[in-house]
Write a structure and sequence with these properties.
Largest sheet: 7 strands, mixed
Order of helices and strands: EEEEHHEHHEEEEEEHEEEEHH
Strand content: 15-25%
Family: Belongs to the 2-oxoacid dehydrogenase family.
InterPro entries: 2-oxoacid_DH_actylTfrase (IPR001078), 2-oxoacid_DH_E2_comp (IPR050743), CAT-like_dom_sf (IPR023213)
Protein name: Dihydrolipoyllysine-residue acetyltransferase component of pyruvate dehydrogenase complex
Shape: globular
Pfam family, one: 2-oxoacid_dh
CATH topology of the largest domain: Chloramphenicol Acetyltransferase
CATH class of the largest domain: Alpha Beta
Number of strands: 15
Structural class: alpha+beta
Number of domains: 2
GO biological process, one term: pyruvate decarboxylation to acetyl-CoA
Distance between the termini: 41 Å
């Protein structure tokens, strides 16, 4: 059964030593002001907080009394097989739980017409087969344009939640499904790169992620994340925001949809489902709708999008 790339780029993993990163790696996290905790201690502590109903460590300003996780002997009901939870799953689960509990999520769904984009992309690939352009690189460029138009999406809340930090750079994380688990390489300065440059860079870093894993530096500093399940199917989902980012875009499989043609008949269009999750503390619903619609507008003009080296 294929392993789907789950849409929570928050959980980062590093170079593998046996089934986990090199011993001694530390991550900087803000759990009650602590820093330089080991990967295992962060995962263990955060998961323990979730299991016992305490979320104070993950968000000092937020409290909830959650019931303990049910303890069930499943063998009473039939044959079972018990497998240990991997360390990466523990870490992923810890960050998933933190982000889901502390960020007020809303997901806005929309469709982007990529009929012209697909025709243009295929023509470009036929003209220059040495560099294969995928829909994802055009989506990256469209996201950058949207971040420039709506700067509140290229932002983060500071540690105490009293200020919003607006970023002037455009680093985009792209979720990659690997045998190590989910890795999210960050492509830097995407506003200054062509679709060809992004395509080459994305192909190289994705291959490295699948074969060797990635360093923490290669997965740090992202402004906004994209997770694509287009290769697997689906019509939409709710990606979890990758804190401290304030939004994430998920895309699923392109589908054909009927639309009125100019001659009064029916025109079949290629529609890309967009699922935009956002932190409602920073972004309101109207802006999310505008952001998603803007991405659709930009994708509808692929020639202009691809022709700009620096946006």
């Amino acid at each position: 059964m294929p392993r789907l790339a789950k849409c929570i780029p928050s959980a980062r993993c590093w170079r593998k030593s046996s089934d986990w990163p090199q011993a001694g790696h530390a991550i900087q996290e803000s759990f009650e002001g602590a820093s330089a905790m080991s990967v295992e201690s962060v995962a263990t502590r955060a998961q323990a907080n979730v299991n016992t109903g305490s979320v104070e460590a993950a968000a000092p300003a937020f409290g909830a009394n959650l019931p303990p996780w049910p303890q069930v002997d499943f063998a009473e009901f039939g044959e079972v097989e018990v497998k240990p939870v991997s360390r990466i799953q523990k870490l992923t689960g810890a960050f998933l739980s933190r982000n889901w509990l502390t960020i007020p999520h809303v997901t806005h769904h929309d469709d982007a017409d990529i009929t012209s984009l697909e025709s243009y992309r295929k023509a470009r690939n036929e003209a220059n087969p040495a560099v294969k352009l995928t829909p994802l690189v055009f989506l990256i460029k469209a996201v950058v344009r949207a971040l420039q138009e709506f700067p509140q999406f290229n932002a983060s809340l500071d540690g105490d939640g009293k200020n919003i930090v607006l970023k002037k750079y455009f680093h985009i994380g792209v979720a990659v499904d690997t045998r190590f688990g989910l890795l999210v390489p960050v492509l830097r300065n995407c506003d200054k790169k062509s679709v060809e440059e992004l395509s080459v860079e994305l192909a190289a870093i994705s291959q490295k992620a699948r074969e060797k894993g990635l360093s923490m530096a290669e997965m740090s500093g992202g402004c906004f994340s994209i997770s694509s399940l287009g290769g697997f199917g689906g019509t939409g989902f709710t990606p979890i925001v990758n804190a401290p980012e304030v939004a994430i875009l998920g895309v699923t499989k392109t589908r054909l949809a009927a639309a009125p043609a100019d001659d009064g008949g029916v025109s079949w269009r290629k529609m890309l489902p967009l699922s935009l999750s956002y932190d409602h503390r920073v972004i309101n619903g109207a802006d999310a709708a505008r952001f998603a619609a803007f991405i659709g507008t930009v994708l509808a003009d692929p020639q202009a999008l691809a022709g700009q080296q620096t946006i």
